[in-house]
C-alpha cells in the first residue's frame, strides 16, 4: 500500500509539472489553429452582441481637404443590425443610416424632407458620405466567414505584434465587394491590425488598406479605438476614431426600424 500512496510531495511535483506544461500546450493550441478557426474568433471579437458609441470620422481628400463627421452608432445581434445617426456637421445632423442582414438591406433617413429611402442591393459597395469606407466595410459582420474561403499563410509580425496571416478568396457565387483579402490578426487579442483589400475585378490590384491601432480593453472586449482606411486608387484616406463606446447595453429591437430611424 505504501508504494501506491499519493503523498503531498507527489502532488507538489504533479502541479509543478502541470504549470510548466500548460504554457506549451497553449502555444501548441494557438499554432495549430486553422484559418477558419482564427476567422471565427476574430469575427466574434469584432462583433459583440450589442454596442453603443460615439464616433468621429475624418476624410482627407486627394486635394488635401479635410471633412469631419460625428455620429452615434448602435449595433445588435453581433453586428447583424446597425444604425448610425449623424450629429455633426449641421448639414447632415439627424441623417440616419440603418443596415440590416449584414448590410444587404440599407435605408437612409433625411430629416429635412422626413423621407426614408431604401438603397439598392449593390449600394453596399458605395462610399459612406464620400469616405473610403463602403457600407459593406461598416456593416457586414459575417461577410468574411460567409462570402470567402480562408487559407492560413505564414505567420508574420505586423505593427510590432505577432500575427496570424490569412488570405480570403471570394466564393464564385458571392457578390462581396472584394475579390481577395489579406489580413493580419493579432495572436493575443484576435483583432485585425492590417487588412489589404483587392479589387472586385482584379484580385492582384490592391484597392484599399485598413490599419487599426490603439487597442484597448473595454467591457472585457479588445477594441481598436482608431482605424484608418487608405484608398490606394484614389490617394485618399479616412480615419474612424471611437470617442466613447460601451458593450454593456440592452438596445430595443424597435430602434432598428424605420420608426426608430426617425427618433
Q: What name does the CATH topology carry?
A: outer membrane lipoprotein receptor (LolB), chain A
Residue stretches low in confidence (pLDDT < 50, at least 5 long) are 1-29
Named at the architecture level, the CATH assignment is: Clam
**How many individual β-strands?**
14
Overall mean pLDDT stands at 87
What CATH first level would be assigned? Mainly Beta
The percent range for helix content is: 10-25%
Apparent shape: globular
Strand content: 35-45%
Task: Explain what you see.
Strands 1, 2, 3, 4, 5, 6, 7, 8, 9, 10, 11, 12, 13 and 14 form a 14-stranded antiparallel β-sheet that branches. This protein has 263 residues and is α+β, with helices and mostly antiparallel strands. The longest helix is centred in the first third of the chain and has 24 residues, at 8-31. It has a single domain (35-261), classed as outer membrane lipoprotein receptor (LolB), chain A. 19% of the residues lie in helices and 43% in strands. It is globular, with a radius of gyration of 22 Å. The chain is built from five helices and 14 strands.
How are the SSEs placed, and which strands pair?
Blueprint: H1 8-31, H2 35-46, E1 50-60, E2 66-76, E3 81-88, E4 96-100, E5 105-110, E6 115-118, H3 135-139, H4 143-147, E7 148-152, E8 156-158, E9 161-170, E10 180-186, E11 192-198, E12 206-218, E13 221-231, E14 236-246, H5 258-261
Antiparallel strand pairs: 1-2, 1-14, 2-3, 3-4, 4-5, 5-6, 7-9, 8-9, 9-10, 10-11, 11-12, 12-13, 13-14
Provide tags for this entry:
alpha+beta, outer membrane lipoprotein receptor (LolB), chain A, 14-stranded antiparallel beta sheet, 5 helices, 19% helix
